[in-house]
């Protein structure tokens, strides 16, 4: 002994971590500012392996950050901007309070702002790094562009997101990079392949939806701020790779409404092609693969790659030469995007949106996409199909037979292209049919009848199973939904014929016994358990009160339909 | 002093004197409060002499002179009063009236003109400038000087001051535009060359060099992908079995949730054996009432009576020692034979070893699998645990037939938020509750308190 004693929690993991409040105090920022800074710089909290050691003996749940990360944050220049902004707000509030309007104007003119460019450069040193992280940015920007323009979040942000998403869609259309589409109940999932990276993103539906209350809007707004910056730079670079002008312009010779000068609207129509920096020929040049001298092993690889490339190019021309017309009830933007990605010409009703180049009466239209049960005026030389044909064709990489998608026909199920079935897994019969189609249509024609018969039998069995299973499930669902209210039911008074006589007495005795049991159990409970029991009963009473309220309302005949819808 | 006062009082009492202000009050105010001062000293003649009354009187006189043109007491009666006889009847003859009117208009001026005449004894001040006659020579000289100065470039003082004042037009400064304004320009971020113009040491010392980002920060916080595609049962027109699979998952979730809710009730449930049967009820009622046979007391006391042992004798000690040695020898012999027998037990020993190794291997594999699973689970970063959102699913009767009748399920905003929590980017938080620092006090208003 005699040397320096080792004290606990002075070295090792205890000194590598710092709690959130300590970090905030170290940076001298408010909590909101601190969270914003962490989100912008990409610094996330860590869960240490041995919480007791890090927390100096206690196991209280705390948020920990790495000390090195926080020290790195100290050198960030936008920390100063945050503090300046705080001072600016304070001065502005004072000027407002004293009604010094000249001071207010002066302060507003000198409002401090900050830029995030250096942060993006630091987080994503190369373009490919940024491209790998674009999934999140895409989904957020698409989400924000569907927000309603009330004052809840800055309208400027929403406009910027809309602009960026439209630019991205135009890029994908021009580069023909779309690969998969999946229509789900949540939204539409797309997958594109850009510069070798597979990018998946989710686009919500355009219909109005309620905004959930437990989402932190400030956090989402901060994320969006960072993502819009990132996304803009990526767009610029992508446009540069294709030799397109950025900010994008539409080529002039398209027949668009002259009186609409807003370029964003023209772009969002997605029906025009983009202007290039160097005026090259209209058709894209086919890139021929260089022919290297082939070795033994490489030969197969090269052949495989060539085959892939040919398939890819064939897929890119999936709808080439076809002319589509979108009816009013169909989601215009999504379908226009997909169809244009594969080379088709699209148009819609002029009153719907700008950019509809031809009318419904145009004779050269080959397909018209309708979602109604039937349509009154029918032209002979065009197909009237439901929109699922487009999505399924894209996923199947070939033009599917149109007969399955006519108006009024029960559609085949929309399968997910993101599912990779392994050997032993269940493959839905529709997918089997599809794969058969892909292998060669000739086989399909011969085996069609057999397949149909088999399918019918299979379907019958499946139907029976369906029905029973559905019934069971329905029962379970009903029980679940009613489970809570089973204890209390406000039913109208029933005349009980068996209440008189010994039978009635027995029933009453049973009831009394049960009640007695319950009372005894309550008496025997320990304090803790009794406390829990009281809590449960309180909650139950509350639900019964609510239920009786609802039922009262029902009986009084008001707002029942409202309840159902909700 | 007293003489002045007396004079004033005498003047006020004169029958003809009419004053504007009644100065009778000023006497009474100060009479009771005055401090006794020696007025024979010269110092006190100015300080403690009260000439307020005289001043008032003089003010009054001056006011009268100013306003009404002389003391009212000296004015003739006619100017102040007139005798009200009543209205005279107007004579009917018009010619006589015309003549009378003409006379009146010539002789007597308008009443309003009379009123507006200034009748004050104080003459209006003389306008000095009106008497100033311009000196032509002087004026000419001033103009020539001004021209000479203007030719030289020297401006008169007034113009200089005007020019020195800050201009009203605002110079538009280069404002740092906000981050999110819609027409924000972008440039090639990854294209430019790195500009390391100055010496790196200089840059570091002056704080101009950017600190390098630590490598660990580039690692993603979770291995989950950013956008997780929903299961195939979530399609708007799903295939039957995949939809059923998704329904089953949702069902499982609901079942676990219900079981957790009922757990407490199950813990508090009463056991069947504890219910009161008639026997036990009877026993309870009867307890202590019936005299039962008393139990026989046990005379044999099993308590060992204290320490009445003798010391150990030598014999006993020797015996103990021998016993110990013997037992040790026996044990050694046993161990020896065990070792010898182990040779024959080789097979079973191998079997046990194999089993043990397999168990360790299984455990290692299990631990590794657990660790891998943990990587994809959301980590606990703070007070609240991560609550996964409900599976978005539509029941069999809610599945739409077409895209037009589709009702979207779930919110993408919530989905993105939860996904970020799942990927350990943000910690789960709840809304801060409003806590009152001090308890609220209820007080009745005074009026109500009196009523009730």
Q: Which key phrases capture this entry?
A:
heterodimer, A: 566 residues, alpha/beta, four-stranded parallel sheet, 7% strand, extended, B: 452 residues, mainly alpha, 17 helices, 0% strand
Which class do the helix and strand fractions of chain A yield? Answer: alpha/beta
Low-pLDDT sequence parts of chain B: 297-306
Quaternary organization: heterodimer
Mean pLDDT of chain B: 83
Question: Could you estimate the helical fraction of the residues of chain A in percent?
Answer: 40-55%
Poorly predicted parts of chain A: 279-287, 442-465
Strand content of chain B: under 5%
Main sheet makeup of chain B:
none
Number of helices of chain A: 21
Task: Describe this structure as you would to a colleague.
The complex is a heterodimer of chains A (566) and B (452). Chain A is α/β, with parallel strands linked by helices and 566 residues long. Chain A has 21 helices and nine strands. In chain A, the strands form three sheets. Chain A has a four-stranded parallel sheet with strand order 7-6-8-9, covered by helices on one side. In chain A, α3 runs parallel beside α12. Chain A starts with 12 loop residues before the first helix and ends with a helix. About 6% of the residues of chain A have low confidence. By secondary structure, chain B is mainly alpha-helical. Chain B is 48% helix and 0% strand. Chain B is built from 17 helices and no strands. The two termini of chain B are 67 Å apart.
